């Protein structure tokens, strides 16, 4: 079982939030780099990667929040987040590297309030008069960065739409079929735009029922666990067909597998999103994991 990690970025809001927090400091790295004497190309290249990742994570979390904005349309625009990531890194590196001489010139030729006199030569110390004559690298490159993100988004949407038209004979993604699937009907379906692989042809159809594959469940942010006491040990082929599988958020998966939920008060325990018996999904209705220990399971197709 495999799934596209980048396609599920918009569903990883908690992870994206922490990534954005950790990348916020990277916005000042270009200013630090231009203070460094001597060759700065390598450090500028690395700082550009970090700045680009900040913008990508911010775009992904905004795309996820867009799902909560009601839409009057029954179809959504598709976007390839893989293409978005790759085009953004390429665009940022190309533009930022070409802007490096200008950024260095802007810093080193600005009026100095305090200089370092070394062997009779005045060197910048980083102190400038507070009269707005020196702008930060972030403020200088912010308009360009937004243009790069906008162009990459348009290109990613165009590529995804073209691919969707060729493969599914439709420019936009229809999600009406998801209402007939018990699992997907309990998930927050995207509005306006999405990078999630939710095409109807990617599910398993048996009769008049559509089954959501485990890979799609993982992309949407859910993992399957079972009580440790019911895990097959000798012969998995002889498993009980009526076994119940438990779906939890991937954000609480490590907490669940490490049995740390046993030490938490009931109100703080990870919640069960739903259960699956004979491939039929039942909502968990906010019930906690209880006092059982759990192990990971690859999951089953859900209706």
Automatic annotation (TrEMBL):
The chain crosses the membrane at residues 42-66, 87-104, 140-163. It comes from the Eukaryota. Keywords: Membrane, Transmembrane, Transmembrane helix. This is Uncharacterized protein. It comes from Aphanomyces euteiches.
